[in-house]
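ENTRY TYPE: paired fold submission
RECORD: A
CONTENT: sequence, then structure tokens
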Amino acid sequence: MTNRSNYRIAVLPGDGIGKEVIAEAEKVLKAVGERAGQEFTMVHGLVGGAAMDAMGEPLSDATFDMVSAADAVLFGAVGDPKYDDPQAKVRPEQALFKLRGGLGLFANLRPVQVQPALIAASPLRPELVRDTDLIVVRELTGGIYFGEPRVEGTERAVDTMVYTRAEVERIAHMAFRIARQRRHKVTSVDKANVLACSRLWRAVVASVAEGYPDVSLEHMLVDSAAMHLLRRPGDFDVILTANQFGDILSDETSMLAGSMGMLPSASLGEGRFGLYEPIHGSAPDIAGKGIANPLAAILSVAMMLRHSLEMEAEAQAVEAAVTGVLDSGYRTADIASPGEPAVTTSRMGELVIDALAGAWAQ
């Protein structure tokens, strides 16, 4: 339990189902505060398409300043069909790039644990996913997403990928420190047989590994990693990888858990400040229908409690409450079996809050 009397949390629901799932996550965080005797001050801002509607830009300077003054950020999702032109110079997704770069958030952590009650929700065979317990550590501020795109007429386009030794070193150190708290194994994923950036990545990761003799390191090409994540997911512990590869592979891991609606994430820098969000997008096709799964957002609250607020017992209580609700048979539409009744977004949030009392006693 922290000694702080108050934490300031910036809440950025964003677009689509982001508003719906963050509403439930915020309720859970308030319930945790009430039970723990901890005060959370929530400050709200617009981001993504919602911010473009109101202010003409995906993230205003005022909102960025508000976030910078907070202890942590609870983030929903960005993306709106009316801003979906890939040629547009301003897009909702640029808000995340500004937040990550401006706040020095260079590491994205995406844990993947298959809930025993949801083994059947995965399209993979139960015996393959049953022992899955891994975390993807994705570099966030370098690579091709932060390169210099160039369009040459209608016949040619160029994207550049850049990584520096310092960028690779800091994300590698984080991955090895995390592995020491888990099963002491790092799988570094690259494309060193083709890309110069990946050859630098592999060399630097190997050098960093020398400082962690208690952690085993294996190198794996990204195409092999994509295959083995489906073939033998239980063999992975910590997956360390670059920005683009981590984006793709972590979405693939959602199928191990049965749904993107089950996976939280944390974006961290050198200190305790972090941005916490479900890995799913804004899902405009189901927005406003009350059927979105809020559990990834709620589990993101658990990650916030653990990493930024130093409230480990409370984080475990939230995770236990989610497990308890699932073990009791409650499902949202994305994880329900055919013909199985599903609860609404708000009802799932209520169930987790109700389960917190029992989780606290464990």
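RECORD: B
CONTENT: sequence, then structure tokens
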Amino acid sequence: MLKVKHGNVIVLSALAVLGTACDKAQLLAPTQSTITLSAPTRVLPSNGTTPVTAAVIEQAGTPVHNGTTVRFTTTLGRVDPVEVQTVNGLAITTFFAGPNSGIAEIRAASGAATAGEERLQITIGAAAVNTISLRANPGSVGPNGGTVELIANVVGENGQTLEGVVVSFNADQGTLGTTTGVTNASGEARTTLTTSQQTVTSATAGTKTSSNVTIALRAGPVVTLACAPAAGGTNCAALQATTANNTATVTFTVTKPTGSATLRSATIDFGDGTAQALGNLAGGTTTVVHTYNGPTGLAPQPYTATVQATDINGESASASTTVVVTPRSRQINVTLTATPGTAVLGSGQPVRLTATVTPAVGAADVVEKYEWSFGDGSDAETTGNEVTHVYTSSGVKTATVKVTTIDGRTATATTQFIVAGI
């Protein structure tokens, strides 16, 4: 009995060991089971992830028992976990793409279903690129150069934009802000190009290269400015001011030549504190008449007239010319009168001589001195225009005055009268 009991114990112990061994054994798919792999996406960016599902179905069309072990493998990247037990016939793992581009082939196997295993391909990074396009914003630079943004758009085979793809930018002129970029969630990678020449650009992702995009050099605004005296002639570098009002009038011709960019506006600054808007010079040429003040002294008065033009792209250009107004004709005249008139009666009667200068305008016309000659051998010099003289002999007397202005101009006048009774 004890042996039996001992035998029973032994038998029971053996059964327990056997049961424990059975619990630890993997449950695998039976013969002629099929495995079907699926993933929500077949394209991933570098370092992207996606769930991978293996559906394991027995020959009868029913899911395998829960807990059936499925083992996953991949040729690129990794799967985690590698082994997964089914629930309702499904085993789900996660695929991690990693940094390298290429095509990952994922497989799943379980027991006797190995012979019928399914393969799932996921394209990673640049390997997924089907097309790449390039555009520039703006599509040109100004006549003095500028900066544009280059935008590459990367698309996969199914038309979806690809994120995380490295794009290389190329340009035959100028300087790129960066030669590579990584596409964002919209499949776009960007850089800048600074250039002062026409430049051909392209972009490459994986084995695909975009069509060339040419950054043109825009024509800039061009204006010319010519000046001519309003009274005729071509020389505005020595315009004599009029004697009457001390001004000089000129005609400016402003031209937008063929080849100039379309103008938004043009303005002429006359250089004397005044200006005039000229519109956009749509007709190509316009004329403007302007009057300048002459100098108040002997030195010529220069003016610089400037046309400033701005085109529809905001580019500017200018043209200038110089107008020089010379002093007006500054000839002076002087008349001499005696008081009393032509006869002086009585001994020792004084004669007042008065010199009148014309024209008398401007600081330079101020008389510096009057030199008197009385016609009787005596002379005098004054700063005023009147002098009194007493004659001591009779007869016809000729008095003379010479006027000298502060800028050195002179004029002379004479008068005659009779001295009697001496």
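NOTES ON RECORD B: The two ends are 198 Å apart (CA to CA). Residues 1-22 have pLDDT under 50 and may be disordered.
STATUS: closed
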